[in-house]
Model the fold of this input.
Amino acid sequence: MAKNLVEKILEAHLVSGRLEPGEEIAIRIDQTLTQDATGTMAYLQFETMNVPKVKTELSVSYVDHNTLQDGFENADDHRYLETVAAKYGILYSKAGNGICHQVHLERFGVPGKTLLGSDSHTPTGGGIGMFAVGAGGLDVAVAMGGGPFYLTCPRVIRVNLHNRLRPWVSAKDVILTVLEMLTTKGNVGFVIEYGGDGVRTLDVPERATITNMGAELGVTTSVFPSDEVTRDFMVAQGRGEQWVELLPDPGAKYDRVIDIDLSEIVPKVACPHSPDNVRNASELSGLKVDQVLVGSCTNASYRDIMLVANALKGKRVHPRVSFGVACGSRQVLQMVAQNGALADIVSAGARVLESTCGFCIGNGQAPQTDGISVRTNNRNFEGRSGTRSAKVYLTSPETAVASALAGELIDPSEWFADQQYPTYERPARFHIDDSMILQPAEDPDQVEIYRGPNIGDPPSNDPMPDAIHGEVSIKVGDKITTDHIMPAGPRLKYRSNIKKYSSFVFEGVDPRFAERAAAARDKGIHNIIVAGLSYGQGSSREHAAMCPMYLGVKAVLAKSMERIHRANLINFGIVPLIFANPADYDTLNPGDRVEIDDIRQQLLSGATRLTVRNATSQTTFEVKCDLTDRERKIVAAGGLLNYTSKSM
Ligand code: MIC
Ligand code: SF4
Done:
């Protein structure tokens, strides 16, 4: 039978289950990646598994998120990560070497392999033909220990790209067009497979811009075929021998097919505060901008930075604009330093930023009050920039650089109308220097793991009680992101210290939540979160489940939930429940006493509907409990760590 790309990769990695959309399957993981903000907890959990050496083909630990080091915490965490990597057979990419997804694409990605990463933008690897999935740190820890990764066998959407992009329009505009069509809601359980004659007009990093922001659609991952373009990119990275061709069979079946004519795409902008709030750049012309930032794992490849440098050559950014540029990797920074492009960027008046996540995760560069910021990254959630009143517009590097020069948001094809679009030529050989990637120790027994005072233990949890006697401790609306649940930015440095980090749960939504929830927990009352649509969008941070668990949250009742967050809730023993009738959401109020009888027994016996009693309003309603048998046992045990230690 003719197979699509997704079926081919999944079939080659299937450990259990049937390849039928909607079924639970388990797949073997070839490679893992972690970053420092999620990594410390992932490795603390890995250490509890008593595995002497990772069992994957390749595991890499990157330091790219918490590099500000305004205090000892980050530096302590980095040293912990470095020593853990040395001991357990993991490569360690030091701070300054670049953003995990970009470095992984450049130096390690292999078509047809599976990659599990503790970061939601791991699907960037789909640009080189990997089946690359984001997950919570605990799932990544299990994969490093040799365990399979469980997921719902996806449905596949085929997106055919035709023709080629016009000048001053680029890959970011393609994915913003897809986001405009499919939005951030309702795509859970799908994978996007790109194809069509337009694919060969896009180099691997451009494809990676597209798969990167698949995360914002909420799909499990996105994947491009591996063709001659992939081969040439890998040859230029000195890794030609790792290339394999990977194409779908002619006549392969898809759940849905979408056709996009690249030549019709125009420059796009995702307006505040959601990546799917997309408009044409030309409609926003004239909006004064205060800040423009180029960088992040979405748009900081050699191609992107060269484009920016060429567009800036001999010009100056608008005097009122603060303009920053962060290369996505040290490889890119070295190359633009050597070829003089960096000088063009600096001469134009740019602030050169470190090759890290930086501004994208709210570490520095917070805009002014009510500021307008144009950025090339992938998320513009309210407050993520560090300034609650700021408005962040997501664009391509082309639109960003035009706006930096103009001082206002502008369609780059209009601003550069008289200027030749710089043609990009991939270098025959990228600058290869992996000296900031440390190899594991030759004698692991000699390595002593460094644990500074910021490193706590992973918190433990009790099994699910027989019944839930709880209280609605917070009621939130639609599209609550993991940034709302667990703020990043200046709070990020407490990631390894759950007690401390837990005091910031829902900080920006309801600053008293953590205190209230902890008090209820201490009185033996179970905390319940009530939410609207797409609860838990965005980041993969398992802290958005782990910290609520620590505060005694036992259940989330939502209209719908995102994939990674749902999996994290289960991993930390919180039961994800969906309103059978969404209108019941309206009947609940903060403070309502809520009861679910025999929850533990019902979970274990496979009940798919549960009755919830609102003791305050004396009403009852039903919720859907669509969990697999394995997930039920995990929740009943109080989380994956309890479940694994019980079954070992
Ligand atoms: C993000 O973009 O939100 C992050 C920071 O990279 C997160 C991971 C984290 O919270 O550490 C992600 O996307 O998963
Ligand atoms: Fe880093 Fe931003 Fe990419 Fe997350 S989205 S990995 S914070 S650059």
Remarks:
- The mean pLDDT is 97.
- DSSP finds 22 helices and 27 strands in the chain.
- The longest helix spans residues 72-88.
